[in-house]
């Protein structure tokens, strides 16, 4: 069972590395982007469930780790910025789901009013540069975990 999980995580890691290129991220189908983001959080130890494409009630991915529930909203944009009303809708989803916090992830950027709105909210804004950092961090953490596991197995 551990070998299967390790193999599955390795496939996810390779996919994340392959798709990390900015052009690839921006050209993904929105649903593919949601699954890609879910895979990143799975490698970070969350159970991640992608919601149906329609009627998602303002959330694209539900994250669970222990009793902690977090939400993710994904916007794969090429040029428009995420606005305050987008963030307000997501904030309502966080409250309605009794989630501890949320991650609003975009391949674009956030407007100044959107950034100001979250200053006292449990929302993490992840724009394109932050997303690339998150991808790099996840890959590094995963590689370190693999090395530790390999040492423990020997």
Automatic annotation (TrEMBL):
Pfam family for this entry, one: Mrr_cat
Any one GO molecular-function label of the UniProt entry: DNA binding
Annotated ranges, domain Restriction endonuclease type IV Mrr: 25-135
GO biological process, one term: DNA restriction-modification system
Lineage top rank: taxon: Bacteria
Protein name: Restriction endonuclease type IV Mrr domain-containing protein
Source species: Desulfuribacillus stibiiarsenatis
């Amino acid at each position: 069972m551990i070998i299967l999980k390790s193999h599955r995580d390795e496939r996810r890691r390779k996919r994340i590395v392959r798709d990390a290129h900015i052009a690839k991220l921006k050209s993904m189908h929105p649903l593919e982007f949601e699954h890609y983001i879910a895979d990143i959080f799975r490698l970070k130890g969350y159970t991640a469930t992608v919601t149906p494409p329609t009627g998602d009630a303002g959330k694209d991915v539900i994250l669970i780790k222990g009793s902690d529930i977090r939400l993710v909203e994904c916007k794969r944009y090429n040029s428009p910025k995420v606005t305050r009303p987008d963030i307000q809708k997501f904030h309502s989803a966080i409250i309605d789901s009794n989630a501890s916090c949320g991650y609003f992830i975009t391949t674009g950027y956030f407007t100044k009013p959107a950034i100001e709105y979250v200053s006292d909210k449990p929302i993490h804004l992840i724009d394109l540069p932050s997303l690339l950092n998150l991808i790099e961090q996840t890959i590094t953490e995963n590689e370190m975990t693999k090395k530790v596991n390999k040492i423990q197995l020997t």
